């Protein structure tokens, strides 16, 4: 699988969800030769999964175990799966300082890993998605993700672990470079032209772990602002 190749090469950059070409970058942000696109984040039905495979995808990323049915279907289609481990978000009311809530989340993670770690379609684990979004200081929640990642590694040392974060400026990327020792791959969600200066920001950040562009798109509605009438721009 191409994703596993990226992991073993300790190269840097895999783009999921972009029709066209896949561009690799090494740790100094130098582009390597393009290869066919590899896959997409997925939240569809069986027909959509089959169409994705027919279009040339080799990998799908799931946001949570709610779509774990995809594993069996993906295996039939020859697809690898990055299985998401759902993570409680403070912006949705999850109490990061509640020991009981953290213990319940840990137990749910343990059950999920034990259930699916031997599935033949499993390519990697993905813990959370943009867990740091809207947080002035991302370190506390990143550290909790890393704590869970250590548990996942203990239960399943055979599969790498991905953490996808919201795109940030160089300073936040520098914080990320010094954090989360149990995370093998960093995923970045890039929108609104952020991909065009991504290579320079990557180089400035000091990040050396493999990177995956896990989402890539045009300007998001959350970035577009509002007009004088207070209506969001589409």
Key terms:
234 residues; alpha/beta; TIM Barrel; 32% helix; globular
Question: What is the fold's blueprint, element by element?
Answer:
Layout (H helix, E strand, L loop, with lengths): L1 H8 L3 E3 L5 E2 L12 E2 L2 E3 L4 H9 L4 E3 L8 H8 L2 E6 L13 H18 L5 E8 L9 H17 L5 E6 L3 H8 L7 E7 L6 H8 L5 E7 L17
Parallel strand pairs: 1-10, 4-5, 5-6, 6-7, 7-8, 8-9, 9-10
Antiparallel strand pairs: 2-3
Overview of the structural elements:
This protein has a single domain, classed as Alpha-Beta Barrel (TIM Barrel). It has seven helices and ten strands. The strands form two sheets. Strands 1-10-9-8-7-6-5-4 form an eight-stranded parallel beta sheet, sandwiched between helices. The termini are far apart. The N terminus is likely disordered.
In short:
The protein is α/β, with parallel strands linked by helices. It has helices at residues 2-9, 46-54, 70-77, 99-116, 139-155, 170-177, 198-205; strands at 13-15, 21-22, 35-36, 39-41, 59-61, 80-85, 122-129, 161-166, 185-191, 211-217. The strands form two sheets. An eight-stranded parallel β-sheet has the order 1-10-9-8-7-6-5-4, with helices on both faces. Strands 2-3 form a two-stranded antiparallel ribbon.
């Amino acid at each position: 699988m191409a994703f596993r190749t990226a992991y073993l090469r300790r190269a840097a950059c895999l783009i999921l969800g972009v029709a066209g070409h896949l561009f690799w970058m090494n740790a100094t942000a130098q582009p390597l030769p393009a290869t066919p696109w590899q896959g997409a984040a997925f939240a569809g039905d069986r027909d959509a999964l089959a169409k994705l495979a027919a279009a040339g995808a080799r990998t799908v990323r799931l946001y949570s175990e709610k779509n774990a049915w995809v594993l069996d279907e993906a295996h039939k289609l020859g697809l690898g799966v990055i299985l998401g481990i759902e993570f409680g978000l403070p912006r949705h009311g999850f109490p990061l300082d509640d020991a009981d809530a953290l213990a319940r989340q840990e137990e749910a993670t343990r059950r999920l890993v034990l259930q699916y770690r031997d599935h033949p379609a499993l390519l990697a684990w993905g813990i959370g998605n943009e867990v740091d979004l809207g947080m002035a200081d991302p370190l506390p929640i990143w550290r909790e993700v890393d704590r869970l990642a250590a548990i996942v590694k203990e239960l399943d040392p055979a599969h790498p672990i991905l953490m996808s974060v919201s795109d940030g400026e160089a300073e936040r990327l520098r914080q990320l470079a010094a954090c989360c020792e149990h995370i093998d791959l960093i995923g970045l969600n890039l929108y609104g032209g952020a991909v065009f200066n991504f290579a320079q920001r990557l180089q400035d950040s000091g990040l050396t772990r493999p990177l995956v562009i896990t989402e890539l798109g045009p300007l998001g509605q959350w970035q577009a602002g509002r007009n004088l009438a207070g209506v969001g721009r589409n």
